[in-house]
Amino acid sequence: MSEARLYPGTGPDERTHFAPYSAFDIPADLRELHGRYDVEATARRVRNFRYAEEWMMMILGGWVATIPELPVKTGLGKIIWESAQAADVLGKRLPELRCGRKAVAASESANTGFARFVEAVSEPDRPDQTIEKLVGVFDVLKPHLAEVYERQMRETDQIADAPTIELLDEIVRRTRRHIAWGQEVLDRLCDTDGARERRRVRGEQLRELLRACGGVTGQLG
Amino acid sequence: MRRFIHHSELARDSRFIRQDNITATVLSTLPDDVDTVVEVFSKLDAMIEKSVQGTEALPLYEEHGPGFGLITLNEPLDPDDPVAATRLLLRMHGIFVGELQALEGAGRSLWDFPDAPWEFKMNMARQCWDETRHVQIYEKLLRHVGGYAGMFPESTFLFECACADDPALRVAGVNRGLEGLACDVFRDMIRYAEKTGDDTMRQAVDYVLADELTHVRFGSEWVKEFTQGDAERFERAQEFRRQVDKQFSFGGARSEREDAAIPIAWEDRKEAGFTDQELEELKTLSAQGPSKDTLLAAARVLRERHRARRAAEARA
């Protein structure tokens, strides 16, 4: 009796004795090929995301000096660093998406409207505008980004574009934490009807700008 | 949001009281002459008196007059000194607000220089987080030694002196001048904590010092990068750092002089990227200024005049 083959030979009667087993059987892999975005579209969206994260980091950095509330100043320090890390990993994804090795620092606004929205977020300057400052980032921009990132993760090719999903997964986790922190601080700062009204008005103004430009990717709705 | 804010625009809550920066910067301009020191601080008396109102510095002012800073600043931290606790609180509070300004300086570097290279932005963003932790650490250490935020007036001279409009000069001022000073002060704090057996303070400050070395290293690397191929700009950055170092030497209180309250942390600075030549320069320029004996003699004159004035006011 011939020994069971460990390695396939060149003929059909020279197969190995191992039982057929698909790598996808257990655990079941329900992912399907094909997503909404091709390589170019994903690269463009990653540049858009990077633009938002980079500017958010710079704006928060500028505000630290003009915010009088000490816990807000110190709370922002880590968020600045984590926004920088988000922009950094997004940039490192770009050469992997055929954007060239020098693309690691490439940021791109989807359109001039989104650039104007970011400028509007950055406008509050005075120390009595902590509410207006935080609303722009924690009530409007970060929630919008978290939503778009999550949609990107759902809609992109689950296998082919898994590296983008992985990095967005971590960014979303942190972004959700930032939003929770920011909104807790805003709830604390908005302890009068007047302050709550300032929060509402500022949020509405910025959401309108965001809707008008189509959000971070210019393709909202 | 505007770029390049003035140091007076640094935002604080109602606990903080601002002190005019001249009381800190003037020290680097004074000669080793008792009469001149007395004359200058007499002129600043009204300003100093105003800034200590409502703070824990008021009793110090009432006891010593406008020269109280000369006494507290120019003596080393010695656990056996009867006023060690007050001196420690003053220093700890000074470090706490210094860390706040370092955080603000790093943050402003992100906003003021939007076209800077990405790696520079990453370094500054990291520094924001580090300085944030330092503020939190020193707020807790301040409480640990019986103090609280806002207990003394805050001078914003660290931000004023270090935050130039040119990024090469900014990193020379903030990352090499200010953070270099932090290395010296923190090494001294660690020595103090070891002497007093305060392991909480020793360990926390040791971690902070490790961060500061990294920040100085950022500065050393970015000065080189920003001035590459531009010898004139490099020399301007070096000259700016020398000016900052001179101002941050408080007329010799931070120096290698025998009477210095805070010695230069030579080994830490070398590890952070300072060259031997730069350290020799620092040794020379920080040693300039009035001696400890001169400052203490001036402080005595100022105290006597202050007491005489108070007595005259009481009689009137």
Can you offer a commentary on this structure?
- The complex is a heterodimer of chains A (221) and B (316).
- By secondary structure, chain A is mainly alpha-helical.
- Chain A contains 6 helices and no strands.
- Chain A has helices at 39-64, 70-93, 112-122, 130-155, 162-189, 193-213.
- In chain A, helix 4 (130-155) packs across helix 6 (193-213).
- The mean pLDDT of chain B is 92.
- In chain B, helix 11 packs across helix 13 (276-287).
- By secondary structure, chain B is mostly helical.
- Chain B is built from 14 helices and 2 strands; from the N terminus they run E-H-H-H-H-H-H-H-E-H-H-H-H-H-H-H.
- Chains A and B meet through helix 1 and helix 2 of A and helix 6 and helix 7 of B.
Strand-helix topology:
The complex is a heterodimer of chains A (221) and B (316).
Chain A: H1 39-64, H2 70-93, H3 112-122, H4 130-155, H5 162-189, H6 193-213
Helix pairs in contact in A: 1-2, 1-4, 2-5, 3-6, 4-5, 4-6
Chain B: E1 18-19, H1 22-25, H2 34-43, H3 45-52, H4 58-64, H5 68-73, H6 84-112, H7 118-144, E2 154-155, H8 157-162, H9 167-196, H10 199-226, H11 231-247, H12 266-271, H13 276-287, H14 292-315
Parallel strand pairs in B: 1-2
Helix pairs in contact in B: 2-14, 6-7, 6-9, 7-10, 9-10, 9-11, 11-13
Helix/strand-derived category of chain B reads mainly alpha
The largest contact between protein chains, plus residue counts on each side, is: A-B, 35 and 37 residues
Outline the biggest β-sheet of chain A.
none
- Using only C-alpha atoms, the radius of gyration of chain A works out to 23 Å
Q: Please name the fourth-level CATH homologous superfamily of chain B.
A: Ferritin, core subunit, four-helix bundle
What order do the SSEs of chain A take from the amino end to the carboxyl end, as H and E?
HHHHHH
Quaternary: heterodimer
CATH 4th-level superfamily of chain A: Ferritin, core subunit, four-helix bundle
What gap, in angstroms, lies between the N and C termini of chain A? 68 Å
Radius of gyration from the alpha-carbon trace of chain B, in angstroms: 19 Å
> What's the count of strands of chain B?
2
Strand content of chain A: under 5%
CATH topology of chain A: Ferritin
What is the end-to-end distance of chain B? 53 Å
* Largest sheet report of chain B: 2 strands, parallel
